[in-house]
Amino acid sequence: MVATSNNISLQNYREVTPPGTIDLLCKLAERLKGRSILHVNSTKVGGGVAEMLHRFIPLFTEVGIKASWQILQGSPLFYQTTKSFHNALQGQQQTVTPEMYEEYLKVNKKNSSEMSFDSDVVVIHDPQPAALIAKKQKKSKWLWRCHIDISKPQRKVWNFLREYIAGYDGAIFSLPSFAQKLSLPQFLVYPSIDPLSDKNRDLTGEEVRSVIEKYGIPADKPMILQVSRFDRFKDPVGVIEAYRMVKKYNDCCLVLAGGGATDDPEGVLVLDAVKEASLRDKDIFILDLPPDSNIIINALQRAAKVVLQKSTREGFGLTVAEAMWKGKPVIGGAAGGIIVQIIYGETGFTVNSVEGCAYRIRYLLNNPEHFAQMGQKAKEYTRRNFLITRHLCDYLALMLKMLGI
Amino acid sequence: MYEFSFMGCIEIKELLGKKADDEMQLLEFIEEVPTDSIYYHTHSCFLRHYYIAGTYTNDFANWVAIQVRDRVLGEKLATVTPSGNKNIDDVRSELIDIIDRHLSSIETVPSVSYGQPFFFMQSEIIEIPTGITANNLAEFKNALEIVDASAIYNHIFEAKLRDNRGRSDFAIWIEEVLNMKELAEKIEVIDSYMYSLEGLRKRLLDICSGRI
Question: Using the beta-carbon criterion (under 8 Å), do B147 and A19 form an inter-chain contact?
Fold first, then answer.
């Protein structure tokens, strides 16, 4: 059982949520008082799911629900297998050997004998622990929460997993396009950001300045920013091309901030390509940040004039909501969850090409009044749709439905 | 005299696993999907556009206009709102009729080339008491300022469908309990489909404060 602690109370969210939200959430939770929920995933630290559960579990507890969190313990071969599953489900060709399938089932079986599943609702996150369903008890309701894009999965791996998913009482996806042909109810729940976490909380001017100074970013030029892993689907080279088109008309600097280049062989290649494309331009800053750089990212997003997320493929792309929460309209590629977050011309612009991206950067740089209006709408839209409090409400509503209360 | 109890609501969104890539498929699915799906795409979209009113007021019109880039059908579908005494089946018939006539008037079926397909969803609304009540107009105004926006949706949009009454809970209570017929009428004639929920909150507060 994972112990979580959080010195932020639900009441602290009153300052950042719309009127009545916390009261409604508490009223909703009253109907579930004394009920229990168990979350199971495969890692305690690193990754969005673990980050979210660290915040979620204390909030569930605070509203009177017995919430617990257990972590699947695997072997190196198991993690290699689930990494292959992950890639295959996202559409990449992978080879999964019979030994790997066998290891996957062996680890799930071993863990299932060591875990307790007597909660009213059990939420299994992602493919790694999906086969725990074999231990499902009749009285409890099991939900499979899929956080990844499985819109075009490699069939062999999906067919293997589907046998286990079919045993669940429901599945939860982050976007409609991720839904699959399954004979169980499939629900839509958007992911969320935590407005009070280090990545999103208010920063002082001094905190922002110190980060800008630390990296030598000029404060007298408007900053164009993209925060994302060095991954070719985030199109960092396309971002540099767009910056160069803008630079002909507007003096500005570009910051590409991300990570993932040290532990991912493909990330290293992409980072090299980005460095090569930058041609040692003194106004391009490439920051390969460690995973715990939350305050740095927060400061960069606040200091930026224009924020980009020019992905050509995307899961949900919560960096868009993060920037919008800081009052920035975002220019994003028309991919994945970006199209849900960006309302064209209202909270930002979706674009389909380098040229379109450059055009919209120039537009935002030169229309400060519209920029400010869009930034305000972006923040409010995020407040209503992409904060952790809405996410918690969605889980509570699903608990009500699954338990027939 | 009964007090007004503000009821908020939460929407559970369910994916149907059906998607349309062109206007013919859209028509076929509109004919066959459950009523809760038509409700989701024409009605509860107001609950999701809390702050910013969408381009058009229903998902079908927005998809056709933005993703398929068929402005003509988009504009025609935008006129379909579940107002008055229409129930969801009436809305479905209206949608079918408009798309059918449009497709009969053109030679090729417009489809998505670069945009997203239309994914059919359905919704289930769970009512939640907010614990906020009002016994007179002053209390009503105070409550309106602090209540979750979903209560405004529930008492205006959802209420009009309830028993096919076509009237908002607010107008009924103000007329029947507060005996303020003129105020009730002012609330009743708001073209609520042209507002976001926050815009509607402001409009209601303006009316109740005598500013309009």
Answer: yes
